[in-house]
Amino acid sequence: METSDTQNIVSDEYKYGFVTDIESDTVPKGLNEDVIRLISHKKGEPEWMLDWRLKAYRRWLKMKEPHWAHFTYSPIDYQDIRYFSAPRGAGGAPGVVDEKLQETFERLGIPLHERNRLEGVAVDAVFDSVSVATTHKKMLADLGIVFCSFSEAVREHPDLVKKYVGTVVPYTDNFYAALNSAVFTDGSFCYVPKGVRCPVELSTYFRINASETGQFERTLIIADEGAYVSYLEGCTAPLRDTNQLHAAVVELIALENAEIKYATVQNWYSGDKEGRGGIYNFVTKRGHCRGKHSHISWTQVEAGAAITWKYPSCILEGDYSTGEFYSVALTNNRMKADTGTKMIHIGNHTKSTIVSKGISAGESDNTYRGMVQVLPTAKGCRNHSQCDSMLIGDKCEANTFPVVQAENSTAVIEHEATTSRISEEQLFYLKSRGITEEDAVSLVVNGFCKEVFKHLPLEFAVEAIKLLEMKLDKSIG
Amino acid sequence: MTTDVSKVQVPVNVPGFDGAMVAALSVGEPALLSAARAAALEKYRSLPMPSRRDEEWKRTEPDLFPFDRVKPLPLLPREEAPVDDWNDKFDVVVHVRSKGYSIRDVSGVLAAGGVKVLSFAEAARDMGDAFAQYLQGHAQRVGAGKFDALGDACWNVGLFVQVPPRCVLERGILIRYEHDEDLSVLVPRLVIVVGEGAQAAVAEQMVSPDGKTLMVLPSKEIYIGEKGNLKLVSLQEWGDDTYHISSDWAVVSRDAQLDWATVNLGGKVCKMVFGSDGAGQGARSELHGLYFATGEQHMDQRTLQVHSAPDTYSNLLYKGAVLDRAHSVYQGLIIARKGAIRVDAYQKNNNLVLSDGARADSLPGLEIDADDLKCSHGSTIGNLDEDEVFYLRSRGLSDAQARKMLITGFFEQTLEKVPFEFIKEYARERIEAKMGRLMGV
Fold this sequence. Notes:
Mean pLDDT of chain A: 83
Number of helices of chain B: 8
Helix content of chain B: 10-25%
Oligomer: heterodimer
Radius of gyration of chain B: 21 Å
Largest sheet of chain B: 13 strands, mixed
Strand content of chain B: 35-45%
Mean pLDDT of chain B: 91
Structural class of chain A: alpha/beta
Structural class of chain B: alpha/beta
Radius of gyration of chain A: 21 Å
Number of helices of chain A: 11
Low-confidence stretches of chain B: 1-10
Low-confidence stretches of chain A: 1-12, 89-96, 114-119
Shape of chain B: globular
């Protein structure tokens, strides 16, 4: 295996770095209208979906790759990426999952069997480009909840997809959103009907397996009036020397009195110590509180990827709607994370909360970039932001670039940020009690992130803590 | 693929500011100055005109400035010192007016030798290379651009202030800018050098009449030597049609201290940069700002707290209020450079948005390249607390009186940092007058 060397060095740090040897159905490298037609054809999409993809592609051709970020990275050759890769047989009989695939997901700790009902999580797993299985379908269907892969939704619920897709993140939005709209291969779709409270956590697990592929998934979640849904997302990829692109789009729509909770634990392969390989995680995530008293909450633990550009945002249009953003971003080695949020207050009495915790170790670069905007007609809006950065090591960088914009006299906005080194005193105290240095760091870091972790579902919170411990291992001293 | 828009920006020059103008300004100048102008001109020509695509200019578009309607003034000659109310309050009073500049040695410190207040030409002739080191201009600033280079190339009055080592300047220096020639541009450049262990206080005041379209592109460089101390107040009260783009930079050496208060009340469109660099171990900067924008005023202020050396300290508090249709922008950045350990930096920006239609933007920022330090910022935007208004009204004050009192209180925290007692009082009156006219009290 070409990655064996790399794997030996860092395998204990990234245990999801294995490659599953599975036959897959891919399209040739490169991007043009024929590739898009082929993807659309393979997925059996209706004409309108193909048209939309092509419009997005033509728009993308006219767009400029953004380079405003604080750092540089080697250029991406968009013609050197495979835009579609599906495990062979994935399109087969529903409910039958390939054994090897099953094994992969077992290894990743993702239950795909219905028998795992006790876990209380319905899972949709996306392997490379295609969604391979969705569990708990029957129980959800009885409640009228649609939870399936995006391709299935296009086939089975075209009206819903047509009505909502691209309404929060239009294909004109930005370079990567346009690219995604043109070539997106799969993703999850969820619709919770009026007044229904989804009884289980919905979850999608994303896995990039094949080399030289990009993953372009698209997730669309709609909570109709009075509905509630909590959604979790996890990601991993094998260790590879080359960079792979992940450009996803997530759209959330909350109608009147609806609530959506969206949690991500992102652990893409982040490259080795010298910064070789790793995933470019260029993602557009946005929620739209359309109805009165609607609520959208983003919680993210960003612990992987070579470069992360991610700003899960809320458009607070409905009066009295609320948006929340809780984030932990950890960078180590040569990782670069530029993440934050936008809270756009359009409706009256809308409220938003931002809590961002950045931890930088090694020679990494960790940036919070955010915006809070209160439009002239939005009365009585409120925002509180708290951004803290912790530095572990002397070669890392931590930056905070918030924008606060109040355009009327009734807005109340507060922003606070701190940057400091991990407290020597706290470490000393813990060590004097017989705790090892590594455990002491881990405890301090956990305390630092507590405010965010408490918004994760329990199992995820435990996972996240372990993930941070693993990522910080060997960065002290 | 598509063309990169940022690369096709043609370095357009500001009308009137070109090679011919620099040549005219250089006539008869010491070679030192004309060489510095020529170098800055090269830089100026090579830089693109800022556009709204630049983060720094996004909220204050260059189009807001009337470049095509105004003409630069020629090199200002020295003139008779005019009578000034504040004359007896300072050691030295400098006037910069549209027709010329003057230096009045009120207490005789200049005649006694030691303290120097010279034009650039005099300084270049008398001091030679000892002066040249202070002409670094835009070269040392963070994020310097087109207008910094323009100021360095095209200044039409240059003043050099030097307080010798261990000298304590009792009453300080007043520098007053009075610009009144319609449709003209004043480009003053000021260098202040405070020697080792010296202490000085400098007040700057900027005034111009209402109703005249005027433009000012000032720049200021400050060098504080080891253990030196400079107290500075910049009081900006331009007329209602004056446009201002400025860039100020202070280098604070080992164990030296800078106390800088800025009060911005006037002008139509202002784009200002105030920067300080803790360049030596133990350097301290206290930066306090106040801005009050009303009517259609647009005020954009950027502060830079740079920490290049270990154990440096900076504390910044900028407080602003916007009324009517005014728009204020505060962009702050703390930069801790590599190796700047044990830095302690704080940045705080409070804004009052007093009426609908007014707008306040706040962009505090941290850029940290070192570990083992403590940097933080806080930013708030809101209106007056209605409970506080109610409390005052329940004590018999009218609504307007209550609000006025609260705004005065809001600004007081910054005003008390203004070094000269009578300027503090004067600034209070100016703020009161500005509030009174607009809030109908």
